[in-house]
Amino acid sequence: MMFQSTRDAGAAKVSAAFAIKQGLAADGGLFVPEEIPSISREDIEKLCHDDYPTRAAKILSLFLTDYTYDELLADCKEAYREDSFVGGAAPLAKIRDGLYSLELWHGPTAAFKDMALQIMPRLLSRALVKCGEKRTALILVATSGDTGKAALEGYKDVDGVKIMVFYPVDGVSRVQKLQMATQTGSNVNVCAIRGNFDDAQNGVKAIFSDAAAAEKLDGDGYFFSSANSINWGRLAPQIVYYVSAYCDLICRGDIQMGETVDFCVPTGNFGNIFAAYLAKNMGLPIGKLICASNVNNILTDFLRTGVYDRNRHFHLTMSPSMDILISSNLERLLYFVAGTRKTTEYMEALKNTGKYTVDADVLAKINETFVGYYADEAETAATIRKTFEKNGYLADTHTSVALACADKYLRDSGSKTPLVVASTASPYKFAADVYASLVGEKPQDELKALDMLSASTKTEIAYPLRDLDKRPVNFDTVIDPKDMLSEVYRYLAR
Ligand SMILES: *Cc1c(COP(=O)(O)O)cnc(C)c1O
Known about the structure:
Elements lengths: L2 E3 L10 H7 L8 E3 L7 H7 L4 H12 L5 H11 L12 E5 L2 E5 L9 H5 L2 H11 L5 E7 L3 H10 L5 E8 L5 H8 L6 E6 L3 H12 L2 H9 L2 E4 L6 H20 L9 E6 L4 H12 L3 E8 L4 H8 L1 E3 L20 H24 L1 E3 L2 H8 L2 E5 L2 H15 L5 H17 L5 E5 L7 H9 L6 H12 L20 E2 L4 H10 L1
Parallel strand pairs: 4-14, 5-6, 5-8, 6-7, 7-15, 9-10, 9-14, 10-13
Antiparallel strand pairs: 1-2, 3-4, 11-12
Helix pairs in contact: 1-6, 3-4, 3-11, 11-12, 16-17, 16-18, 18-19
């Protein structure tokens, strides 16, 4: 299985290892598999008897053919260990008849990024060997909170890589700061910046494009790399849990083999829902994919009109991981529906004017599978409360956006097809807003909000967020943005 760019059909195809090592294609496009492998009913039946790591290794082996099955199985077993994913890697909870929650947040940072970031660094580590790369990859991350922690947990103690995370000293929540300051691992470094997120981000960008720094690093046996969310190594592992959810529905006798299931996905960068599209095209009996957005509803508009227009107001919401105006992975869908030439045109227009319009036949093809809905802040809060009161199910703010959209879809379509909502964060990850949605008043102290939510709902705090203030602080360095590169050198010289 080889990979090509979404933009240039004529360029040389590359192996999975190369695509993962490189991240972005040379022409600025994203790597996509040259064909989509298929799974048969018999394959799905067999997967039903497997545990999550085995399901993951089997699905990944269809796409990552330059990795051996044994390599993938070893990596999946390490990544989805029971002590990292407490309660299972992607358990399926029933909310009510016909409506399920696929819980993707049982990992070490209590959010769905763990599903990909626990395995991707291991795939990268092997990719370096497969590509003959002798140097160590130094991953630099600027974070406004959650991505940095998920990356630290994913890369810690993985061979062939080191990771360094920069965050704005006053720009992250108390919980997020504690999560990063108490990070463990032999190959990690965390550093606060006197400045905001943009200062941290610009600092990292400046280091990435600093030729002298790259040369010095090369001499010391390192090269810079990023933990980018559009890397194929982050997307492929997300296909697995859709297949796994389908198997679980069969195991518990809730559906028959071959029966259609719909999925509703709270969407930001379009990575999660695009993985579902790949699963469908592999042959998994998926009907509709409901793309759920918050009031940053650029995708809802796109799916209804074919116009993608980022020239609009940006809203800060209580589902911040979906506050996005450029959904990078949508490019992969455009490639599969419209081909490289049109995709390149659309992306050029987006870059130059912030807007593009797809042809009517392209939109029609997209709408065969995708429907768009959005939920505003009041609907999101009301859905958290209603779902807890009526169904005894506690959802986080992102999951609640999807639940609200699922309700709208069911109302409009009258569908009786079983529907699975992707649940992307533990309610404790956004405890203050979840508590406020239930009780009315938003706690000021986020750490206290965890206990308050636990007491009022009689549920347990997700393990990664428990006793954060009792863990030893391993990182307390604070620097000026101009000293970021020297901090990198200092870390590597240690
Ligand atoms: C990243 C994230 C999303 C959005 O997923 P995409 O793959 O970017 O569409 C939704 N919810 C949570 C909690 C996230 O962290």
